[in-house]
Every structure is written in C-alpha cells, then in structure tokens.
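Q: My labmate handed me this sequence with no annotations at all. I'd like to see what the chain might look like in three dimensions before we decide whether it's worth expressing. Could you predict it?
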Amino acid sequence: MEPHAVPSSTPSAPTLSPAFLTVEEAAAILRIGRTAAYLLARRWEDTAGAEGLPVLRFGRLLRVPVRELERLAAGPIDVTAEVPAPPVYEEPHARASEPERTRRTTSARPRRKTDLTQTSLFPDPA
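A: Here is what I predict for the chain of 126 residues:
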C-alpha cells in the first residue's frame, strides 16, 4: 500500500469578484467620500433610478451592483484590487508598548496668587 501523496502546492480557489458592494466600497472605487456616496444613493431612491448612485435595498442594507458601476464607468472594474480592506481596530488594553496614561492632577494654567489678608468692609471701632 502506497502512502497518499500530497501535492506540493495546492491549487488556489479562483477569486470571485462580488456582485454587490457596500456604499462605502463603491465610494472608494469612485474616489468620492462616504457622505457623498450616501447622498447619491438617496438621490437614486428618491428619483426612482433616474439619477444618483445605483443601489438596491435589502431591508436596511444598501448594496451597489458592480454591473451598474461598470456601466457608469463605461468599462470593467477590478473590484478585488480596488476595494480597501476593512480597518482593524485594536482594543485599548491590547497595546502593551504604550505607557499607561495617568490623570492630570494639576491644571494647565497656574493659579493666581491671592493675598490671604482681606480688608474688612466694616472696620473694628477702636
């Protein structure tokens, strides 16, 4: 009985480009801001598709069809190369190299020196 031979390199799965993008991913491809993209998506919905950024609504989610973006761009869009990776957030306690911040006990402005002796409004009759 011969041992099962494992190929030295496993064939990688073909990269499938998504059919839909988030509004933020489409904004990155179009090089516009997130707010502008959402305003254009709203215009698309308000004008029944006459103008704006083409979107489909799935419940509360908005998705931009890649084919519609390609139609607007008059050519193919390489979605896998242009969609930015989502940001990675670290927990504050996970950063060991950063020194622990302490609370400031003094104010930024020095206090005025006040004279502790006060003059009386009503002097003692002597």
